[in-house]
Amino acid sequence: MRLATISLNGRTQAVFDSGDGRVRRAPAPDVGALLQRVEWRAECTDDRDEVDVDVADLELLPVVPRPEKIVCVGLNYRSHILEMGRELPTHPTLFAKFTRALVGPNAPIEVPAASEKLDWEAELAVIVGSEVRNATAADAASAIAGYTAINDVTARDWQRRTEQWLQGKTWEHTTPLGPWLVTADEVDPQGAGRPALPIRCEVDGDVVQEANTSDLVFAPVDLVAYISTIITLVPGDVIATGTPGGVGAARTPPRFLSAGNVVTTTIEGIGTCRNRCSG
């Protein structure tokens, strides 16, 4: 199943595409609210009202517009870590974003006037579907509602002002999330919380990142278990799993985003965010 949050007649609306090409209204104003309903899967049925808009013309919002938590992971692709000459980590590096950082999958990325080094980071995002604390591996896998794409756009000059990353990571209107939440059964048929999905980022048509999520050091199931040891995860929470090599700051010479650039974030089986930078 594919879920999205759209703007419809001036309001938000959760919708689902059950695979027949027709989008129907889900019984909630957005996907985050939908996931809080215990029987949300059963309630998304073919007899619900269709949305009288072509799928290509839907105004897609962040798939979860107001998550309680956005937890992000740094340094989590084996090949990227090893090519930098570092040892693989024994624990995930965690930081956070706030809700105001999110934008829709086709909305502008706002280039901060105060930053000269805005960078891209294509990532797989986990969407939590049930409340979980101190999760076992089995609990963690079953708590994953599905997956979507996120780009952890980062102001490198602010990130590196101190050893704490938050100030470079949560600028308003910089982080695309979407286009769809694709349920775990569609992209992780084994149900193990370890999907193997090609991921790619392009800037103005140039491929700048290309990898597979099977290269993650800490897979989604590991991250849900680890984070739930610290704090209760609830439906709609977002976990950004980390980015592969190819970021602008690591290039020679470095390359950063500016107004007019178009950033495309694609995960096979999930979809594409296409965002123009504005400033």
How would you describe this protein?
This protein has eight helices and 17 strands. With 279 residues, it is an alpha+beta fold. It folds into two domains: 59 residues, no CATH class; 215 residues, Fumarylacetoacetase-like, C-terminal domain (Fumarylacetoacetate hydrolase, domain 2). The strands form three sheets. Strands 1, 2, 3, 4, 5, 6, 9, 10, 12 and 15 form a ten-stranded mixed β-sheet that branches. A five-stranded mixed β-sheet has the order 7-17-16-13-14, with no helix packed on it. It has a two-stranded antiparallel sheet with strand order 8-11. The longest helix is centred in the last third of the chain and has 11 residues.
**Structural class, from helix and strand content?**
alpha+beta
CATH class of the largest domain: Alpha Beta
The percent of residues in helical segments reads: 10-25%
**Which CATH architecture of the largest domain?**
Alpha-Beta Complex
* Contiguous helical run count: 8
* Mean pLDDT across residues: 95
Largest sheet: 10 strands, mixed
Compute the number of structural domains: 2
User: Can you tell me the overall shape?
Assistant: globular
Could you name the key traits of this structure?
single chain, Fumarylacetoacetate hydrolase, domain 2, 17 strands, alpha+beta, globular, 2 domains, 16% helix, 279 residues, ten-stranded mixed beta sheet
